[in-house]
Amino acid sequence: xxxxxxxxxxxxxxxxxxxxxxxxxxxxxxxxxxxxxxxxxxxxxxxxxxxx
Length: 52
What we know:
This protein is of the alpha+beta class. 38% of the residues lie in helices and 29% in strands.
């Protein structure tokens, strides 16, 4: 929460190779209340990794 506002971050996720860099920063943030990840790829290997 920041200034009495809930903070929601959204990422239209594509490739796992890029998500691995942004993901830790968002999760480590003290002000983020919710992190939504929208599956935005047709690469089945990336989709399978996101569920783990």
